[in-house]
Q: What sequence folds into this?
């Protein structure tokens, strides 16, 4: 938490190294997020680049990493919808589904969860990473044991340790998810 506060403080002061750290950590998530709307890798990259340029110009208005991320998500969402309206001429039914707060919320949650799980997995041993990857792909313990040439009990032990280690890494990432859900609920109750 303290490092996030220092990072945003340095970004607000114009520290390009701090901005680069934030950019490199969040860029892949925003690309994935934009691509859920556009299904066009190049257009997604262009929009996300524009978002970070705009973010840099408005850096003094951002007071926390989570608020900065939410700001960027909203910016990218709006630019993607504009792109779809202008460039693709989507029908109103398809566009209204993408404009919904439910689609937005679910897409943010999916990207944040994927990033959180991936980040937590990086702290595991190579064998732990492989067991978790195979588990997330839907393989049963017996199949994982066969694939890795170990016993089922070894897989269970590795999995138990891996999940325990990942749990602590995931807890720090949940604030952005909660804020996104909270924003959706406040908008929904106003309707």
A:
């Amino acid at each position: 938490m303290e490092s996030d506060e220092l990072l945003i403080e340095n970004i607000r002061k114009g520290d390009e190294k701090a901005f680069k750290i934030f950019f490199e950590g969040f860029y892949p998530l925003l690309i994935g997020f934009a691509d859920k709307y556009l299904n066009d890798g190049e257009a997604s990259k262009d929009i996300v680049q524009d978002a970070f340029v705009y973010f840099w110009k408005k850096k003094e208005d951002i007071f926390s990493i989570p608020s900065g991320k939410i700001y960027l998500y909203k910016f990218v969402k709006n630019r993607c919808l504009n792109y779809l309206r202008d460039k693709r001429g989507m029908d109103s039914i398809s566009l209204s589904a993408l404009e919904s707060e439910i689609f937005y919320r679910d897409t943010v949650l999916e990207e944040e969860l994927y990033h959180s799980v991936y980040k937590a997995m990086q702290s595991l041993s190579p064998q732990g990473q492989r067991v978790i990857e195979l588990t997330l792909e839907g393989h049963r313990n017996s199949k994982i044991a066969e694939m890795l040439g170990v016993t089922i009990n070894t897989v269970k032990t590795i999995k138990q340790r891996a999940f325990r280690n990942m749990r602590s890494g995931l807890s720090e990432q949940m604030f952005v998810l909660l804020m996104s859900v909270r924003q959706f609920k406040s908008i929904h109750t106003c309707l």
